[in-house]
């Protein structure tokens, strides 16, 4: 197995024998690399849906939906996947899957293209560990102490600013979810959890909350923290959801863009930075 860094801070291309990959011979090393680099890219890997599942399952437990289905079809086509198509617009903004109102987000998963857009449709990944470490000491001390509220209305209006009263009422029926702004992981590393659904900072004046969130988002959007994956046929991308944010880039909805995705069950609960450690800092 050989690897090549795609950017200094996030993303590695993996060159590996196809049989070794399917048999999981390097699964332990790949999982460590996934945590360290956030995104693993395999090029020219001619595999089918079942083989994609096998590779993904070598890194953890496959997650199912409420019906027991494992495969998720990533598309805006309501005929193919009506549930995913209904909220696809929000995935064009930075987000971390499953953390809006969950305590244990999914660990990550894999994407494999079935049909590609003629233009656009790239997937971007943001290193949330590096974004936190890139803050100055005063800002790290500040954000370690903060909790924020995530709302469906905030993400919904970002994706659809001309939403109807009925749509907005539907979003408002979902209660806000309180989460720490910083996740302190079992490894001791910390990551910024600042996706599109974050609406306000708890206990802060709305004007100051707005300014802080804007400033942090501008900081996170620096190109050095981001890897943009331009899809090609026979790609496989595996990402670590707990240490990155991701988003799709715009594309023509009529292009038929379709990715197959398998998701890995979460293993670690979200935890705010330790209070004692903050006091010592």
UniProtKB/TrEMBL annotation:
Presence of the UniProt keyword Cytoplasm in the record: no
Listed EC numbers: 1.14.11.-
Coiled-coil segments: none
Matching Pfam families: TauD (PF02668)
Keywords: Dioxygenase, Iron, Metal-binding, Oxidoreductase
GO molecular function terms attached to this record: dioxygenase activity
Boundaries of every TauD/TfdA-like domain copy: 3-262
Family named by the database record: Belongs to the TfdA dioxygenase family.
Name listed for the protein in its UniProt record: TauD/TfdA family dioxygenase
Taxonomic classification: Bacteria, Pseudomonadati, Pseudomonadota, Alphaproteobacteria, Sphingomonadales
């Amino acid at each position: 197995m050989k690897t090549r860094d795609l950017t200094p801070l996030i993303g590695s291309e993996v060159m590996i024998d196809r049989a070794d990959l399917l048999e999981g011979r390097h699964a332990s090393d790949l999982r460590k690399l996934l945590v360290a680099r956030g995104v693993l890219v395999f090029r020219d890997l001619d595999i089918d849906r079942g083989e994609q599942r096998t590779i993904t399952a070598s890194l953890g437990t496959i997650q199912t939906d409420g019906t027991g289905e494992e495969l998720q079809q990533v598309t805006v086509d309501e005929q193919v996947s009506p549930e995913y198509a209904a909220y696809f617009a929000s995935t064009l903004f930075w987000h971390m899957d499953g953390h809006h109102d969950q305590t244990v987000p999914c660990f990550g998963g894999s994407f494999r293209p079935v049909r590609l857009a003629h233009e656009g449709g790239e997937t971007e990944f943001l290193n949330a560990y590096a974004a936190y470490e890139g803050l100055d000491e005063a800002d790290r001390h500040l954000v370690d102490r903060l909790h924020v509220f995530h709302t469906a209305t905030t993400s919904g209006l970002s994706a659809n600013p001309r939403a109807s009263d009925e749509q907005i009422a539907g979003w408002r029926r979902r209660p806000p979810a309180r989460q720490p702004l910083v996740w302190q992981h079992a490894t001791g590393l910390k990551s910024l959890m600042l996706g599109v659904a974050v609406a306000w900072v708890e206990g802060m004046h709305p004007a100051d909350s707005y300014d802080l969130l804007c400033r942090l988002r501008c900081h996170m959007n620096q190109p050095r923290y981001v890897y943009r994956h331009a899809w090609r046929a026979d790609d496989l991308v595996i990402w670590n959801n707990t240490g990155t944010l991701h988003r799709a880039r715009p594309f023509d909805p009529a292009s038929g863009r379709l990715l197959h995705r398998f998701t890995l069950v979460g293993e670690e609960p979200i935890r705010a930075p330790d209070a004692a450690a903050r006091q010592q800092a």
